[in-house]
């Protein structure tokens, strides 16, 4: 395992640092904030600056507007961008997940139309996969696409679709053949989110924000050029998207972690003086520290593999499950430490710009999105530890014959 950059990586990091210091727009305030129109406008300005100098979509091919770089360069750039407070997250689904899917499964004329504007930040994407009865069991989607002359007629409902209310394009997973087993009768399409047949209804969250949505599709007509991959082979296309979703988890971190809660604890008194003298709190802090270090070293191991030309494997799931659980524990503890002031989640007023309140409200979602804790544990058990697989009784049954309340 390597703990340091290679000489080439160190040189690249130094170049990126200088470039960011030189080009960062004055007053830019990235970070994980609600995707308001003003925030998106700011994100688009930064993305265009990056694209002009080959730092947008770094590991996507130059022919389609990317930087033609390596995954390691992409990770280093993202780390430096985050450190400079210029990470916006708005293009993560488009560039991180949908672009590689279009590049792997779309015809060239569609790549020309979709990929370069996405990498330049001109187009925002959403992922239209989950449905009310298909989340962890994603192959159970019921949104129906049927042949309609040379094209397709699509009806159905999606849910929890991040950024759908701001998106220009969507990646849509549909059922085309209910006579085949559930993984074998799916087909993927890309859609124009401004089509009147698509209705987006934002979901109001506990935080007061609306970051994800319900999406209703009624008699949407698509030409066959909207299809990605073969008919009934949409599961393979979805796996490309999901694999890239896991990779994107690799390069970003979320705060607060043990350092931030230690900072907060310094200001709080306990029964024997400062809270940092309290043995119960110290024990909990040590536990968070150990887990954070474990994740950090797991990340080093994965980065070492990537730096040597490998791909991030299922071990990334270890980081996802520990990070999101820890985020919830620390968010919750931070709110509690602030006593009655914990209820105020205004970043102008609350301690440390309300990072604990934000984490408290957001973290339950982090344990579900991109694969729930239990699904991550299944992946770790089966693919990291080599334990026997989860019982999958329905994998050979035609989808039409699976028991359900409504058909
Ligand atoms: C913040 C956030 C953003 C999201 N963004 C998107 C998006 O942009 N696009 C999109 O399509 N979807 C999105 N989702 C949806 C997300 O993919 C699903 O919520 C997730 O896959 C879980 O599916 P579900 O909600 O249907 O829960 P279910 O799959 O119904 O799970 C319910 C419970 O059962 C458990 N469970 C299910 N199967 C098993 C099993 N085999 N073994 C053990 N336990 C199991 C789960 O762990 C969970 O606790 C997002 C969700 C969140 C929270």
Level-1 CATH class name of the largest domain: Mainly Alpha
The CATH architecture of the largest domain: Up-down Bundle
Indicate the mean pLDDT.
91
Helix content: 40-55%
Kindly estimate the percentage of residues that lie in beta strands according to DSSP.
5-15%
Q: What is the gyration radius calculated from CA atoms?
A: 22 Å
Strand order of the largest sheet: 1-4-5-8
Which features does this protein show?
alpha+beta; Butyryl-CoA Dehydrogenase, subunit A, domain 2; single chain; about 400 residues; four-stranded mixed β-sheet; binds flavin-adenine dinucleotide; Butyryl-CoA Dehydrogenase, subunit A, domain 3; about 15% strand; globular; 3 domains; four-stranded antiparallel β-sheet; 11 helices
Model description:
With 407 residues, the protein is an alpha+beta fold. It has 3 domains: 7-90; 126-239, Beta Barrel (Butyryl-CoA Dehydrogenase, subunit A, domain 2), CATH 2.40.110; 253-384, Butyryl-CoA Dehydrogenase, subunit A, domain 3 (Up-down Bundle). Helices cover 43% and strands 13% of the residues. The strands form 3 sheets. It has a 4-stranded mixed beta sheet with strand order 1-4-5-8. Flavin-adenine dinucleotide binds next to strand 1 and helix 11.
Topology:
Blueprint: H1 7-23, H2 37-52, H3 71-83, H4 92-105, H5 108-119, E1 125-128, E2 144-148, E3 151-159, E4 169-175, E5 186-192, E6 198-202, E7 213-222, E8 227-228, H6 234-250, H7 258-266, E9 269-270, E10 273-274, H8 279-307, H9 316-337, H10 355-366, H11 373-384
Parallel strand pairs: 1-4
Antiparallel strand pairs: 2-3, 3-7, 4-5, 5-8, 6-7, 9-10
Helix pairs in contact: 1-3, 4-5, 4-6, 6-9, 7-8, 7-9, 8-9, 9-10, 9-11
Bound molecules: flavin-adenine dinucleotide (FAD).
């Amino acid at each position: 395992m390597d703990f340091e950059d290679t000489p080439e990586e160190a040189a690249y990091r130094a170049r990126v640092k200088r470039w960011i210091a030189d080009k960062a727009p004055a007053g830019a305030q990235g970070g994980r904030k609600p995707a308001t129109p003003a925030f998106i406008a700011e994100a688009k300005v930064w993305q265009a600056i990056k694209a002009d100098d080959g730092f947008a979509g770094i590991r996507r091919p130059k022919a389609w507007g990317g930087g033609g770089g390596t995954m390691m360069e992409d990770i280093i750039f993202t780390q430096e961008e985050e450190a400079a407070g210029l990470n916006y997250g708005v293009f993560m689904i488009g560039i991180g997940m949908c672009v590689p899917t279009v590049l792997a499964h779309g015809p060239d004329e569609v790549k020309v139309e979709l990929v370069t504007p996405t990498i330049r930040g001109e187009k925002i994407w959403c992922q239209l996969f989950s449905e009310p009865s298909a989340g962890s069991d994603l192959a159970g989607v019921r949104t129906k696409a049927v042949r309609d002359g040379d094209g397709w007629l699509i009806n159905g409902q999606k849910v929890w679709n991040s950024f759908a209310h701001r998106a220009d394009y969507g990646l849509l997973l549909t059922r085309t053949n209910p006579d085949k087993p559930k993984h074998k009768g799916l087909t993927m399409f890309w859609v124009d989110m401004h089509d009147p047949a698509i209705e987006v209804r934002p979901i109001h969250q506990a935080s007061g924000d609306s970051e994800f949505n319900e999406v209703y599709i009624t008699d949407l007509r698509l030409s066959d050029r909207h299809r990605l991959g073969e008919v009934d082979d949409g599961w393979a296309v979805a796996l490309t998207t999901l694999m890239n979703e896991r990779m994107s988890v690799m390069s970003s971190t979320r705060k607060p972690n043990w350092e931030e809660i230690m900072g907060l604890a310094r200001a709080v008194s306990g029964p024997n003086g400062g809270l940092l003298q309290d043995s119960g709190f110290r024990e909990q802090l040590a536990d968070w520290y150990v887990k954070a270090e474990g994740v950090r070293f797991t990340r080093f191991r994965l980065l070492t593999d990537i730096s040597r030309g490998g791909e991030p494997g299922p071990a990334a799931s270890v980081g996802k499950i520990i990070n999101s659980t820890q985020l919830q524990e620390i968010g919750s503890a931070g709110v509690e430490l602030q006593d009655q002031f914990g209820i105020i989640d205004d970043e102008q007023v609350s301690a440390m710009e309300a990072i604990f309140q934000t984490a408290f409200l957001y973290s339950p979602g982090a344990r579900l999105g991109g694969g729930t804790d239990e699904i991550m544990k299944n992946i770790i058990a089966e693919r990291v530890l080599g334990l026997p697989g989860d019982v999958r009784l329905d994998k050979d049954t035609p989808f039409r014959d699976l028991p359900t309340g409504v058909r």
